[in-house]
# Entry
Amino acid sequence: MQHCLSRDIRVVVSAFYPLGGLGLANTSVARIAAEFPNKKYGVDYVNLGYKDGPEAVMLRLGDNIADAFPTDVNGKPISELPIFEGIRSLRQVKLVFTAATGLIGEYWITLANAQFGTPVIIGPTAVSAPKYYPFLNSGQLVGMLGGMKGAAEYEQLLARKYPELGRFYKSTHNFTGMKGMDAQTGIHAVIIGFILLGNAAFLASRLGKRGA
# Structure
């Protein structure tokens, strides 16, 4: 969202998870909007809130966004929001980014991309990332941020390609993805150490029994 707003790209946020998804959407919009006081709600970005039944909602988005989400999260009709000028359906949306895994992520691929031709990027949890590589290799996904590793790679790319945005991101969030990778690497090293220690103890026990 920071990346898009910094490049004057309009952002439409929605959620298909009732708890985590809606909470993440509301928190992210409020936090990042505060970092861009020159951007206006309803003009540069909007939060449509939560809808149940993702498959049906996505199909309706392909026909008419207003049918799927008649109002935003505040109850205001989206027909009154300037951000939707010239945009009637999902077919006119330039890119979908879904921070999701499981069926929600697959729905965006099989519906938004396969049926409406909308490019999709996914940000799944690390444990779910491997199942999305076939979609990535086939072109049904145009990008993927796999877990914390993907977040760290994205931060590095931002810093290299857009130095000003990279400095802004570092000052506001201090590259939490890359910092998290440092911690995760340390934890993995400890786990590997315990595995080696456990195997060494097992072998020593076996050798001790043979000696006895």
